[in-house]
Please model this.
Amino acid sequence: MTTENGGAARRSRLVWLLAGQAILMVLLGLWVTRVAVGLWPLTLEDRLSQDFAAHRSPVGNGVTAGLSLAASTEGIIAVTLLCVAVLLALPPAPRWAEAVFLGVSVAVQSAVFLVVTFFVERPRPDVPQLDGAPPTSSFPSGHVGASVALYGGLAALVLHRARGPWRYLAAGVLLLVPPAVGLSRVYRGMHHPSDVLGGLLNGAATLLVVGSVFLSGRGAADDAPAPQGTSDGGASPVPAQDGRSRRAGGRVVVVRHPHGCPDELAAEVRARLHRHGFTDQRWTSTTVDRPGGRLAEECAAGGVDLVVVCGGDGTVRVCADAVAGTGIPLALVPCGTGNLLARNLDLPSDPATALDEALAGGDFRIDVGRVEGDGLPPTRFTVMAGAGFDAAMVRDASPVLKAHLGWAAYGLSAARHLRDPRMRLSLRLDGGRRIRRRARMVVIGNVGALQAGLELLPRARPDSGRMEVVLFDPRGAAGWLAAAAHLAARIVRRPAPTTVQAQTHAPGGPVSVAAGSLEYFSAARIEVRFARAEGREVDGDTMSEGTRLTVDTEPGALRMRLPRAPGGTPSTARTARTSSTARTAPAARTAQL
Model:
C-alpha cells in the first residue's frame, strides 16, 4: 500500500478513535451528573470545596493563580507554540512527528472538551470563585485536560527521545504539573474533584490516541507488498476465482454519485480505465429517483464487461442489487461517507488507487444478503442491515456534518439516542425456534468491520455463505460505558475469535454461551419480528419503519474485481480467511463485558 494510502488510513483511525473518546467522555459526564448524584464519594465533593474555600490564604491564592494562568488558554497556546518551534529547530533535522504529536494533542483535547461540554451541563461549585467562570460546563476541567496534553505530551517526548538518567527526573517534574493544576482549580472553587479526574482522563486518552497515530511505527498493512498484476492492463488474461478468465478492456458502465465523485475524480477514473484498456465507457449519474442511474438498462442491453461504482455504500448496494447473479464483475471507487464494503475488502482509501489496483487484480465472488419486510420491498445489501439504535443514528445524522466530518457525524447523532427505549423482538434462525430478547439494536452483517477496523461482528466474512447477527443491549450509563470500552478496544488490537462453549439444545438449533450486552448469532436465514414498528436501515440508507426484517443469504452471488495478493488470492484477509466453522449450524455467542 502506498505512503499516501497509509497516511489516509492513519488519519481515519485518528478521527475514529477521537470520536470514540468523545462518546466515552460524554457518557462519563452524564453518569456523573445524572446517575451518580447522591452516591459516595461524590457526596463529599461539596464539603471538600467548602473546606478549601474556608482555609484560603494569600500564599495559596498566589501559587494557585500562577498554576491556573499556566494552564489557561493563553498560557497553553504560548507554551505549545514555543515547544513546537524548538522541536522544528533542533538539529540535525526538524522533528516533524514530535511537533505534530504535541500540537495535535493540545488541539484535539480542546475539541473533545468542547464536544463534551455541549452535551454535559454541570454547574460549578457553590463557593466563592477566585477566577472568572467561562460559559462552559464544569465537567470536565479544561485547564487540567490541556495541561495533561501539553506537559504530559512533553514528558512522553522526553522519555521517547532523550537519553540518560536525567530524562526520568525531567519527565517526573512535567507529570506533576497536571495534578497540581487540578488541585489549584479545586482550591479556587472552579471545579469539583470529579471534574479534575475527568480532565485527567480526557488529556491522557488524547495522548494515547494521538501518540498511537504519530509516534508509533506503521502497521504491517503499510509495508505490505503491492498487489501483483500489470498496471497497464496487458493483454494476458487473469483467471477469476470461479474458473473464468477475463480479457483486458471491454465495455464498462460507470455509475457516478455526483456529490461523492466530483469532476476531478471522475476525470481520474476515466483516465485509469482507459489506461487499463476500457476505452468503451458508458457513464450514468445517480439521482434521487434513480439511485442506480441507467445501470439496469445498460446491463439488460447486454455486452457489459465491468461495472464501476463511484460512490458510497448506498450506491454500491443499489448497483449490487442490479448485477448480483449476472456474472458481471463490480469494481469500487470508494468516495462515500462510510465506504464500509471497501474497507472490509481492504481496498486502498484513495479512490483512484483503489480502482487502479482492482483493475490489475482478478475476480472473486462474495455473498450478498436479500432483505425484505412489511413496507420494505426485497432488496440486496452487501454490508449490514439493522433496526433500532443504528437506524435512528443513520436517520438523524446531519447532512451538513456528514459533508464536513464524514462518518464521525454518526457519532454525534448516536449521542442523541442513548436513552431511547429498548425493543422487544424475536429472532428465528434458519427456521428454528423463536428466540425472544430485548435489545436497543439489532444488526445483520455480511462483513464485520466498521471504520478504523472496529470489529462489530468479529466472525463475519463476505464469502462464508451466512450472515452474522449482533444484539446490542447495554443497561444504563454503566452498561453503555462498558459496551463502548469493549468495542473501542477492538480498534487498538483485534481480539482473538470468541471461544464458543457449545451447549446443544435441539438438532440444528442455536448454540449459546452466557448473557451480556453483546450477543452474537449466525445463520443463512434470519427472521426478526418487533413488538412495534421500529426504524430500519440497509447499508446506511434509512428505510421505512416496520415490524419485520427477513434476510436470506445468496452465497457468492456478487462477482467483485479486487486486488490480487502475491499468492493469487484477494488482497483481503477477510475474504480469503474462512474458518473451519464457517458453514456450520447457526450459533449464538456473547461478549462478556
Observations:
- Residues 3-220 form one domain.
